Amino acid sequence: MPGIDKLPIEETLEDSPQTRSLLGVFEEDATAISNYMNQLYQAMHRIYDAQNELSAATHLTSKLLKEYEKQRFPLGGDDEVMSSTLQQFSKVIDELSSCHAVLSTQLADAMMFPITQFKERDLKEILTLKEVFQIASNDHDAAIYRYSRLSKKRENDKVKYEVTEDVYTSRKKQHQTMMHYFCALNTLQYKKKIALLEPLLGYMQAQISFFKMGSENLNEQLEEFLTNIGTNFMYVYNRHIIVIIHKFIIFTII
Predict the structure, then answer these.
(1) Same domain, 120 and 227
(2) What string of H, E and C letters represents the secondary structure of 114-169?
(3) What's the predicted TM-score (pTM) here?
């Protein structure tokens, strides 16, 4: 409903049909917010899980490359150039693994924490207050019904007092829970904007920090690494070509 940004708490005492109708709109909006934020939470959790998996897989790759020189291949023989090349790969990939681990931590703190807090605290509070308010309303309706069933011909002062007191107590409780419920629904209208933007900002800041960290720490190292790898690769490639040519010549002579 355009132009209406909060529930009127001052109307909770009267509890008019108009107020109940407006409450229904806010409840519908809260349900829509909850459904959307749950989907966003699942999407962000997939990002977080994927980043953790990438970090772990990168670390494992570095570890396996480092262990290459310890392997014993029946047909491989000792190849110092290949071992040295893979050791260099291992070192650089290990640096990348550290960067990915930092990114995982930043995503947990800046992205997952705020959206989880909103989901587990604020949205659950709305559901809890809704249940409490519904119970209080049912109790009040039951008290009103018992009061309406009092016999006018056989009035019992004690029974009448107890029923009247029950109506008063249940109405007071309903009014209090209704005010708390209205406050929570009003607060949700403001919190939902923060809850949506905060994890997104956290995600972007974590990514920027990750790329900046990689740029600052790996630029010079990568240039030197790629130069060395290029030299080693050409050496291995040329040796391989020479072996193929040699075998071809022998085969031709035979």
Answers:
(1) no
(2) HHHHHHHHHHHHHHHHHHHHHHHHHHHHHHHHHHHCCCCCCCCHHHHHHHHHHHHH
(3) 0.78
